[in-house]
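Pilot study result, target chain (99 residues):
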Amino acid sequence: MNPVDPVIIAAMITLVDRAVQLLTFLILVRVVLSWVPSVDYGHPLISLIVRITDPILLPARRLLPPVGGLDLSPWIAMLLLNFANHLLHQILVSLLAAG
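Predicted structure:
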């Protein structure tokens, strides 16, 4: 078996961390935007945020549909993102320890 380069593992961990941080930030931005009634969802930047966050929020919304106007899907999505991030960290660290 080939040894695993620690620099590559560290880079992968950093990349995954940054991606999760960015997605979490964009989900929070989307939550704030949902509170503003006059948001133009046709605006290119807002449309980009929606296109990036929809693949994460829509499955979470199917798991827990909004109840009484309260949408908890962003919370579920961020929780699952952080869980997946932690799990991937553990896998990458175990690869590093095995290599």
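One observation from the pilot: Residues 6-98 form one domain. A full batch analysis is planned for the follow-on phase.
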